[in-house]
Amino acid sequence: MTGLRLLVKSLVHGTAQGEVLFSDVPLSLWGGVDPYTSEVIDRHHPLSGELLAGKVLAIPSGRGSCSGSAVIMELLLNGKAPAALVFAEDEEILTLGALVAKEIFQTSIPVVCVGAHAFQRFESARSARIAGSLVEIDGAAATLEAVDTGTIRTDSIELSVRDQAMLDGQSGKACQVAMQIILQMARIQGAAKLIDVTQAHIDGCIYTGPASLRFARQLCEWGAKVAVPTSLNSVSVDQQRWRSQGVNPDLGEPASALAQAYVEMGCRPTFTCAPYLLDTAPTFGEQIVWAESNAVVYANSVLGARTMKYPDYLDICIALTGRAPLSGCHISENRSASVIVEVPEVTGFDESFYPLLGYHVGLIAGHRIPLVTGLDLHPVSQDDLKGFGAAFATTSSAPMFHIAGVTPEAMTLEDLLDESSPPEIARISLADLQHSWKKLNTADNRHVDIISLGNPHFSVDEFKKLAGLCAGKVKHSQVSMIITSGRTVFSEAEEAGAIDVLRAFGAEFVTDTCWCMIEEPVLKPNARSLMTNSGKYAHYGPGISGFGVHYAGLRTCVETACTGLAPAYAPAWIRS
Questions:
Q1: Which residues share a beta bridge with 59?
Q2: Cα 447 vs. chain centroid, distance in angstroms?
Q3: What pLDDT shows up at residue 110?
Q4: Which residues have a catalytic role annotated?
Q5: How does DSSP assign 459-508, residue by residue?
Q6: Domains of the chain listed by start with CATH number
Q7: Could you read off the pLDDT of 493-515 as tens digits, one per residue?
Q8: Which residue in 36, 441, 494, 534 has its CB near the most CB atoms, within 10 A?
Q9: Tens digit of each residue's pLDDT (9 = 90 or more) over 110-132
């Protein structure tokens, strides 16, 4: 193709050039890219197996985990980063990683937003050069095209007296740097002012490599202390058991040190990816700053609290200051659905239906907030919404969803269709769900070594339900059943008697960490396949563990734990 010159929106200024690596499918860097080698390990992604190092990575946006920002920073500090990031739309998670690396470690890469139309020109591009807002594709061209992607705020953001004091360094170096990062992101988001938040949940406590620990320790050295009640997400090892589990100290020690650094900043050692199960869960309309993709989606959609899908490291910056940009889902009008997803009539299904549906709705929605219709006649539990939301957050970059007749802010279909510009309507067929079912079931034979439960972390109700299914039974000697949960929920389940029943069955328990961080030796070295009831882990599992995955409902997981063999056929409800 002939050369093109584009004037675009620069999210992070810089200069770079390299071979273009293009995909029209968004990519989650956490769980999707190895931070030490830059290989794309998401086995469901078109770029699977490609190396990002030195490439101009052109993708529509990020998706999935809030920890993508941490992966970008790790890649930058170990010399394996892409040369530049090119997005079709404004992207915050990966952009934030580049911003923080620039602010803290004085290293970064250029990040640009080129708009949907110009983005398609990268599909056939061989190389690109980026210098600030100027992008050259396959060499220079005489004509310069200006791309309309919106603007970054250049005028002053309204600051309170306390905001200005923090920015001036009067509250210490940590608050000063945190406020500088917050304001950079506020400008990208177009926010005119900051708001108070009542609580925070930190995802950046996950150990992604040396850079994550260096970042936290630097904040501690600067005297960082959180300004609002702050909980901690799952960390990378079970701090109470990692030594007895045989985890290598090269991981266990820095992962525990990272967790301790956040505790030193005043965060509560909750270590759960499901903070909505704690007694500190926010209420309807509460302005909060939560990271961890499934928690963000649950808080917005099910609880009606208000949070952006905050990237790792921006979460702690806001927790240190108690201030967040007024943008995105903090604003009422930005919480409306922009696509209607009609669900087909399905009967006789088990709870595996909801994560499967969330996974597929996420693929349809992309960055848009969906309204899901067709479920109002079915009972939908809080655990169903937990599984739906986690799988939705895996394939979508949207911060929330609505389900008509179920979630608290869901508009009626009639209200949406009466608007001047009604949203798109997408209809899901049973064949569509069958296709996603096959994508989540990647194992090539019926043999199962491990039953993986608790992604997101198990609730007390799930422990009780599982105990009821396992009572009076004993698992197959060659099958491991491992359940992850937060410390608080585990104690509550123990008091309820569920843990004793599950121990008698032969189950093992892991707290503090979750399945997206579990590797050998907790995963037995001779294991080759697993079964999970999590749509999220069925997606990430093949890349993280290298195992074939069976996806199924909880009852099927118990039956398989007893036999060591997955069912020969998918359940009748998905085949009908």
A1: 87
A2: 30
A3: 96
A4: 65
A5: PHHHHHHHHHHHTT----TT-EEEEEE-HHHHHHHHHTTHHHHHHHHT-E
A6: 4-146 (3.50.30.10), 161-325 (3.30.499), 336-438 (no CATH), 441-575 (3.30.499.10)
A7: 999 999 999 999 999 999 999 99
A8: 534
A9: 999 999 999 999 999 999 999 99
